[in-house]
Amino acid sequence: MENKESNNNKVTRRDILKGLATVPVLGAFGYGMYKKWNLDRLRHNSIAQELGLSFSDDDEAQSPVVSDGKTIRLGIIGFGIRGKQLLRAAGFAHPSVIDDWKAGAEKNPSDRRYADYLAQDNLNIVITAVCDLFDVFAEEALQAAANINRTGSDGKMVQTAKRYRRYTDLLAADDVDAVIIATPDHWHAQMAIEAARLGKHVYVEKGLTRTADEVFALRKAVKESDIIFQLGHQGRQTDSFHKAKQVIDKNILGKISLIEVCTNRNDPNGAWVYDIHPDGSPKTIDWAQFIEPTNSHPFSLERFFRWRCWWDYGTGLSGDLLTHEFDAVNQVMKLGIPHSAVASGGVYYYKDGREVPDVFQAVFEYPERDLTFMYSATLASDRFRGKIIMGHDANMEMENTLLVYPDRNSTRYKKQLEQGLMSPDKPMITYIPGRGQTDAVTSPTEQYFASRGLLYTYVKGKRVDTTHLHIKEWLDCIRAGVQPSCNIDQGFEEAITAHMATIALRENRKVFWDAENEKII
Amino acid sequence: MIKKHKTFSNTQLTVLVVARVLIGWYCLYEGVSKLMNPNWSSFAFLIDSKGWFAGIFQSMASSSALLNVIDFMNVWGLIAIGLGLILGLLTQVATVSGIVLIGLYWLSHPALINVKYMLAGTDNTLWVDKNLIFIFLLVILLVFPTGKEIGIDRILFNRKK
After folding, report:
1. Nearest CA of chain A to the CA of B160: how many Å?
2. Between chain A and chain B, how many beta carbons pairs sit less than 8 Å apart?
3. Number of alpha helices (DSSP H) and beta strands (DSSP E) in chain A
4. By the 8 A CB rule, do A429 and A404 touch?
5. Most B CBs within 10 Å, among A3, A10, A22, to test the B interface
6. Residue A404 pLDDT > 60
């Protein structure tokens, strides 16, 4: 017994063998890992690095560095849905909005809207002037302007703004350096031209103008002035589009023959059936002024609040939503104005008396680039279709994430496809904003989250609102005296393109752009 | 002194050790692949939590400092558990740690009726899911320990003072 005990205490050869019996498993594991790592490395190197892409998050700020830090005195014309969003993005949310956010955060700790808002940069501006033709909105604009401490309705308000009943008076005011125009489209040109004449910097929402003629007049006015002009395509700040430009510039897709962009929405708000405010009436709305630059019409609450549904005030799917898609591709591919446009569509779902189609298609030709740009939209189906750029060697899906898939019959990637380093059903390049990496193999989960914007929250510690960045870029440019990314030349291309489609639809004909004489024919 | 290996037949011991090594391999690769992916974070998994403790797991994801700790513990925890099980090194500690860690996965992603996860697996589950089975396999390894038979624990713990 004692003998056995002491035997037990010694480590025998048998103990060593049994003790280390499973160690060879690690050898197999290591071998497997090495093979896999090698393959991944090969795949990664052969695609992203060989193609010379450098996707880092650093170039997020496009704004010029020079800035004199001067406080800019801002006026806002139009405080409807978009006006409220713009002022909020600039740092002046209406107190009731903050009340909502706070309540939301109390109920649900993952509701970070208020925290993200507080984390936003202070843009060093003061709101000195507001103008809206509806008394309730004008009053709300004053309240938002006074919310300088970014608090709810229990906070301390400091009124800095004055209400103007006419935009001309607002623009003429000495304490207005710059103006945000967020009115219906039929007012854009007139207001922006007047602002340019008075030397006030302009941020105007898209679509640039209601008519094609106004585009020329507005461009002339801006060019003749010294103002800093920004068109409200916040997609200019979208990280993935900047990376997409690298992909295009490096000709990774090969010869591009077709670009397909789309709009799909399926709710009344998305179809411009906006709420009619209960206090709206001829007493609270300056209707006479509202219809001043367009065709006369008797007072109508529907037309005032849902103006996008009528050609007298809006520009339809073309001006409202095609422009976003076009500008996204234009900033990436420098498409410019197309040679021709055809369009079709109709009022197929929202038979509420509107004139503007809720289903709309437009096809633009670029014979000099050998490609077609196609837009397709419906306001009565939510089926997601992304922006797709189709090349001979690869195609690119361009949303918040970038996905580049090699083409099965690519000439350039033939070898890699044969070697199994690439596969047509796997993205060869994936870019997820905020991740700072380009990777040939990224999990579908990551893509899923990024497409919903969840990754921004984690990586940057805050969600970055592109509209905030777009306004910030404009203000920084004003301080530095340079033009921003969506300047009047970019706006000109966007607006002419959109108007060509609208004219093609309304006149039911093919419309051409005479580039030499700068004329739509 | 009761010699435990006498309680297992050779077949039983082989089956148990193979099971231990397979589970260890799985954990080890989960850990190593996370380690090698610079993009990996537990954020997505945590924020996707459902069920009874979803709030707690989601709040973990909202703090980036805490998230770093969780990421670190996850990666190195999985690697340590994996190595422990494969090598039979501190086997019981590794087994219990595995039960705790996978228990947390299970609590954050219970297979409830009508709950859909964004990180959808390909399996169809009702109440019982892979994590739960995994936990139970580890419990089996815990009550039928083999580290002191086939494993480094045999060398470490047979040496009595």
Report:
1. 6
2. 86
3. 20, 17
4. yes
5. A22
6. yes
Contact assignment for A110 to B17 by CB distance below 8 Å: no
Residues of A with CB under 8 A from a CB of B: 5, 8-9, 11, 15-16, 18-23, 25-26, 29, 33, 37, 109-110, 112, 432, 435, 437, 439, 442, 445-446, 448-449, 454-455, 458, 461
Mean pLDDT (chain B) is 85
The reply to whether residue B21 touches residue A25, judged by beta carbons under 8 angstroms, is: yes
> With an 8 Å Cβ cutoff, are B38 and A23 in contact?
no
A266's tokens: 């399926």
Which pLDDT tens digit goes with each residue over A97-144? Answer: 999 999 988 887 767 788 888 888 889 999 999 999 999 999 999 999
Report CA-CA distances (Å) from A6 to A2, A3, A51, B161: 6, 5, 68, 11
Q: How deeply is A136 buried, as exposed, middle or buried, from its count of CB atoms within 10 A (0-12, 13-18, 19+)?
A: middle
Helices (H), ranges, A10-62: 13-19, 23-44
Cα B115–B116–B117 angle (5° rounding)? 125
Mean pLDDT comparison of A221-225, B45-49, B101-105, highest-scoring range: A221-225
- CB-closest option in A5, A21, A439 to B39: A439
> Best-predicted range by mean pLDDT among A193-207, A420-434, B126-140?
A193-207
Backbone angles phi, psi at A134, to 5 degrees: -105, 120
| Cβ proximity of B88 and A19 under 8 Å | yes
Cross-chain CB nearest to A18 (options B39, B149, B159) = B149
Q: Cα B97 to the chain's mean position, in Å?
A: 7
Please report the pLDDT score of residue B118 as a whole number.
63
Higher confidence at residue A464 or residue A178? A178
Q: What is the pLDDT of residues A163-209, one digit of tens each?
A: 999 999 999 999 999 999 999 999 999 999 999 999 999 999 999 99
Helix/strand/coil (H/E/C) assignment for every residue in A476-512: HHHHHCCCCCCCHHHHHHHHHHHHHHHHHHHCCCCEE
Among candidates A235, A236, A227, A229, which has minimal Cα distance to A209? A229
Q: Mutation test of the interface with chain A: which of B5, B39, B67, B71, choosing the one with the most A Cβ atoms within 10 A?
A: B39
Which residues partner with B127 through β-bridges? Answer: B111
Please check the confidence at residue A475 and state whether its pLDDT lies above 90: yes
Residue A42 has pLDDT above 80, yes or no: no
The span from the CA of A471 to the CA of A456, in Å, is 19
Find the CB nearest B39 among A8, A9, A437.
Answer: A437
Beta-ladder partners of A517: none
Q: Say whether pLDDT at A348 is over 90.
A: yes
CB count within 10 Å of CB A517 equals 7
Residue count of chain B: 161
Nearest CA in chain B to A8: B158
Domain edges within chain B: 19-147
d(CA A38, CA A44): 10
